[in-house]
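Q: What structure does this chain adopt?
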Amino acid sequence: MSESLLKQFISLHDGNINDFSEVESLFEALYDKHFIMISKDGKTICSRTYMKKIHTHLLATGTDIQLTQFRKVCIGTVEMEIRLQNEEEDKVIHFVCSFEGDKLVRAQITNCFATRHYMEDLDMFNLTERFKTAVGVCVHTIKHDTSE
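A:
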């Protein structure tokens, strides 16, 4: 139930400008009153109150949030990755989220990339093309060696 609420809440950030009041009941159902978000280096960076302000801003700026990865790690814990896009930023954030009952109590940021860097990392400096070139050189060398 709680994972589906989280997915539903994320889907409401669809790139259209919305008022937080339209999603407030879902926010209240999802976030525990003692919710905390932890940064990559282990420091508490925000509370439930601040998360409400963040989502108010994201909705008001027409932010599009796409869920790019979501998997249940164990009971009460999910790992997820989102891509957050608006006119101010375009980034990918990886989280591990913990639930107690149906409430989200903690989210730990494990990685955050500007999307441009993330896409470059996925391509690994164009390794696919470099591999094809290397294979072509090897095939050519083998053909050349066997003809001698």
